[in-house]
User: Fold these one by one.
Assistant:
Number 1:
Amino acid sequence: MHRKRAVIFDLDGCLVDSEPLSLEAIAIEMRALGIRDASAREIGDRFLGVAMPVIAEFVAKRLEGPVPEDFAQRVENRLLASYESKLFTIPGAETLLSGLQQQGTAMAIATGGSLRRMVATLELAGLDHWFTDTACSAEEVANGKPAPDLFLLALDRLDLNAADCLVLEDSPHGIRGARAAGIPAIGFVGGQHLDGKRDQHTALLREAGAIEVFEHLAAVERFIQSYTEDVTK
């Protein structure tokens, strides 16, 4: 039996409460293109946790034509502008990260966002110092979630094996990506974007393979600190 040596975090919706801002920025830019019924809820239901190129493919289908080349840039510009005054960490995030550091647990980020967005998010939220050289963006791999590529990159930067790690994710795509990389994953449903549908989303995360699902980071911290695994299995 051994305690996990590292935790790999999804960023948006797990450490920062940014998903409502992100989903609304995408919906606004879709409406600007003439997709009048585009909504943050629809985007969240369909694409929570996936990289922007996948969303752009969906937008192209709705438009029945090519997406403007600057669509992703416009979404990101709008989003980062909103971060200046509206970005907040998930309650308990800094306590969780501090506790893990004190017990000697390494930490990494595996986010579907771009490098620019990842860096800006960590800096504006004051979390960047926890992830020096271990923050990984989907922009750095061939395939985003639910492919395992992003988690494998995180393992490489941590210099650890899958069996030594645990993933915290708020999306089924992320849970599946972690499992594809051989890493056990727990789900998190505490973000504001899941208000009104936590029970439904909990079921989706469990169906995707989450070994546990939590609504509060304090409970996540207690689970991680006590979680052990029989390495002979």
Number 2:
Amino acid sequence: GIDLPQLLSPPKPQSRTLGRRDLTRVGEGQQHPTPTYEHELLSWQLAQKRMIPFKTIVRARRFEEFSEWVRHDGEEFLIVLEGIIRLYTEFYEPLVLEQGDSIYFDSDMGHALVSASDHDAIVLSVCTRSDAS
């Protein structure tokens, strides 16, 4: 009668439930455009969170469009919502991910996404945040 995460995680001491929530309606995320991506930060008004969720429109079409690897502390989960992407990582050969495919990786490892579709691809990412308490 328990779910999978409970089976895989050791029990933690009971903590006080804070009951926090932060709704982001479609198109109302905080926009953060870059030359290669158009990020929409989700649940951006909630402070001191452990995860950073964002939706990204992948505009880049070639790895050479990046001046350096993207890297940040923590871990990242990514799922392709629309299109096809090519994920470049510092220590592995490029990987093609199609709609519905997902990957979990160490985001301190250099990485970059390019759209392998005729149109811009869209991905949803959730990154851990090491400085949240």
